[in-house]
Amino acid sequence: MTAFEASAIPGEPPPADSVAPRDSTADAPTSVARLNGTIRDFIARWNTVWVEGEITSWNLRGGNVFARLKDVRSDAQISIRVWSSVRARIPADLAVGDHVVAAVKADYFVKGGDFSFIVSTMKHVGLGDQLEKLEKLRAQLRQEGLFESARKKPLPFLPRRIGLITGERSDAEKDVLRNAELRWPQVRFRTEYAAVQGDRCVPETLVALQRLDADPEVDVIIIARGGGDPQTLLGFSDERLVRAVAAASTPVVSAIGHENDHPLLDDVADLRASTPTDAAKRVVPDVGEQRALIAQLRARATSRLTQRIAHDISQLEQLRSRPVLRTPDPIIEDRAHEIWLLASRGRDTLTRRLDAAGRTTAELRASLRALSPAATLARGYAIAHLDDGRILSDAADAPSGTPMTVTVDRGSLRARSEGQIAEAE
């Protein structure tokens, strides 16, 4: 007898209006219930098997766990269920990403037609291959200094334009835009859409990052995605994307998943936001808070200026209350008299010096006049000059016929020597 020859539900007769699957025809089909029952009876004969895999999802519902296991060497996956009675006997710290070995038995849910495996026991094998690779990459990037706070760029206070990389029509996009506009209504965005999971995630995100980083009007870039299991967030731990973000000239904010999600992008980004909503709050200032701060600073400046003016007025009043400033006329009069005396003394001194200099000049002029040759000439004497410029002082130097110039008191005249006159005996 084959599996499809079995009854629909053990212990219960098959429905009267249904034939066995093996006898079904187009005119006499079997029922869904009988088909599902036949499948379940066939699967129930399978023995328990041990399977190795990586936990990719782990959802707790009413004490029971509904999860998925992924093959560590391929993309093959199975659905597993851990009932509350079994959950109490397995490690309590099992979580997504754990590499485990589990004893499972196939189960087919007749009512819903769902196929899954029921776990009877489960234990750790170690970190899943993917998470183990990520941890090695994390250690390498940390050693290269890509996680250092010193290399991270500060965010602008009020960006001119914000670059946003996210999934098209995603909740993350709505959260960022709505919260940013609530905080600063005039905020401007340039949005580049990219796949946020799967094989297209990394190449499309790299292209979007390159475009926004090359835009001179974009002052900060937000990479945003909603939460998910580590399997769906793997693209944001890709080494190509991580290194591109580290090399970007524009500050980058990582807003991937929820608070507990921690892709490598969070470590190299210039700022890590716990959620897309938190990213909007960290990048865009609140206009209400800034207005309140400006009002507070104005009030503080007004108060300080008022105090300073009052202090200066008080000091000025103190200075004006002093006797010297209260009645300054006597001081001015004393100084004016002192200046008049000094000016009078200066005039007297200058007059005496001028008179003495005049007398000295007259004496010198008289002395010069007495020593001047002109005074001798005025008494009738003359001076004879030879043509070579010599003054004739010896008659022997002017033999007969020697021309000469004779200078008298009033002019000069030409003369010629007649020779030396003999002296009388």
Automatic annotation (TrEMBL):
Q: How does it assemble?
A: Heterooligomer composed of large and small subunits.
Q: Where in the cell is it found?
A: Cytoplasm
This chain belongs to the protein called Exodeoxyribonuclease 7 large subunit
Family annotation (PANTHER family): EXODEOXYRIBONUCLEASE 7 LARGE SUBUNIT
Reactions performed catalytically: Exonucleolytic cleavage in either 5'- to 3'- or 3'- to 5'-direction to yield nucleoside 5'-phosphates
Q: Which family does it belong to?
A: Belongs to the XseA family.
Q: Please tell me where this protein is predominantly located.
A: cytoplasm
Q: Which positions fall inside the Exonuclease VII large subunit C-terminal domain?
A: 146-363
Specify the domain of life of the species encoding this protein.
Bacteria
| NCBIfam families according to UniProt | xseA
**Briefly, what is this protein's role?**
Bidirectionally degrades single-stranded DNA into large acid-insoluble oligonucleotides, which are then degraded further into small acid-soluble oligonucleotides.
- Please give one Pfam family short name: Exonuc_VII_L
* Annotated EC: 3.1.11.6
Q: Which organism is it from?
A: Microbacterium suwonense
What UniProt keywords apply to this chain's record, in alphabetical order?
Cytoplasm, Exonuclease, Hydrolase, Nuclease
Q: What segment(s) does the record annotate as region Disordered?
A: 1-30
